[in-house]
Fold this protein.
Amino acid sequence: DATDAPGRFRGPLDVLHDIFGYQAFRPGQSEIIDLLCGGTSTLAVMPTGAGKSLCYQIPAILSERATVVISPLVALIDDQAAALRANGVNVAAIHSGLSRERNVEEWRDFAAGRSKLLYLSPERLMTPRMLAAMGRIGPGLFVIDEAHCISKWGPSFRPEYEQLAALGQHFPNATIAAFTATADSATRVDIADKLFHGHGRTIVHGFDRPNLQLGVQPKTNWRRQLMEFLNGKEGLSGIVYCLSRRLTEEVADYLCEEGVKAIAYHAGQPSDQRRESQDRFMSEDGVVMVATIAFGMGIDKPDIRFVCHLNLPGSMEAYYQEIGRAGRDGQPAETLMLYGLDDIRMQRQFIENDGEDGEHKLREHKRLDALLAYCEASGCRRQSLLAYFDDTTGPCGNCDNCLHPPKVVDGTGEARALFQAIAATGQFFGASHIIDILRGGETQKISERGHDKLDVFGIGKARPKDFWQGFIRQAVSGGYLVINIQKYGCLELTPRADAVMAGQEIFAIREEALMPRAKSKRGGE
Ligand code: ADP
Ligand code: ZN
């Protein structure tokens, strides 16, 4: 029995070969393993599929002391335990899905040292009885999976995780390993503070997926943009993500008319229909799933060749996870995200409506800002994506900005006109009315309010509506304007806009975003 022979392995690489049957470590793995074997508490941030489990399983196998793995999901515990047992490692697991008798048996195995690893849910560990019993065993390593659940800063806070902050006091001689796939830097600092109280390391690794081509475009005409993206991808599998169920149906219908084998997928469909769609996607070539984010969890198809977002994703983390479903086999895969002003307004609305406290809302708005900044980036997309996760790379040569560097032009004159129109109307109106003013429109709203008497009325007539929409989108993404959801989506000026109006700052803008290739019917009138 492998686990009964401490000293049988000379080091981590032996365990990797002999127990797991793998040739080499992946980036980050051996560094984390060395830290844990050396007794340094470590927070490891690695994307899903990067191979986090080995990072604690190998130290657990090499250690003479016991290891406790805290994991929130019963299904996850069962998978992990089964995989280890299949490799000849004895493990115990205690959770609510097992009978009382079985749990007692599992505990006995662990307490007697027959299993050196115990999987446990957090609420089971933090009871006085369990803590006392655990104290007699004296585990050398505590592993906290899905560690972002400990942080109120993260997207999936769990109160039962918060108690884990006391782990260090209960077991001062144990090493703590925390793992997560989704944690921005504020969340990470919070996790490390709570668990390590200033001691311990944070390692970020493996976010780079060089085979994924990254692309973002402002949404001008999604039908044309989508067809252009799908051009040459006949026979390949892919996902098109939409925000609403209704849009998945509309897009799938449209694609079918265009001869693409598209299937709509959303949580409003009967479960057998969804299962059938999934089966087709897995087994047939060239199926395009047009889906809400309900699709993808647990889908393990290695040869998904493209992912297209027709709406702005919910966050940078969500975006990363969703595009990450493509190219799991390491072969080239393409991604495209389309985003428009409506998307920005909608995401802000979601944040406002989610019923959380003000501080939480503010953080969520900031997270959305980070995504918008990524959309408007004029440098390498991969660099800005990885920078969000504190990972780094050189310019990638495989994103839209690397392949076709965007031209940046001075838009200060137009920006001043726009900001003045907003200021002169009391920062009280949304994009379409402001554009009507700039273009000298003859709407009832304009005449009723006397906005045709303003200095800026008609000042932007030479530019089509598309132009101004793109311009406002960039001004919002660049932090010059905010869309105030509490006031019906009206546009408000930020200090950066004031600086442009005062002549202290120039307004640089991506030229191509202002001159969309696909002109709308009203464009150029
Ligand atoms: P995560 O927990 O980070 O989502 P897992 O630990 O489940 O990822 O690992 C994902 C897959 O990669 C598993 O099938 C695992 O066996 C495999 N894997 C992990 N490390 C290696 C390695 N060094 N070489 C080859 N495969 C590995
Ligand atoms: Zn790049």
